[in-house]
Amino acid sequence: MSSTRERKERFILTFGKITGQTGNDAVSSCLRDNGLEVFPDWAIDSMVEDCIRSARSAIKRNRENRQANAAYFRRMSNAMEA
To answer: What's the pTM?
Structure first.
């Protein structure tokens, strides 16, 4: 990576500390203007993998929460019957 690009990346990432606009705001603005075509194929593949991993994690977490809640309500129901 060229030193010029590194400086530009550092500028984007630290810009919000001075002006209130974050690097994420700048990236979001770029995406609104240009869409995902600004990313190379490997970056799109990485984003897809991240989305899939996140969705699977959310499904697993929701299932575990439902099981924990069901066990809690069973215990409470049994305690009230006793």
So the answer is: 0.56
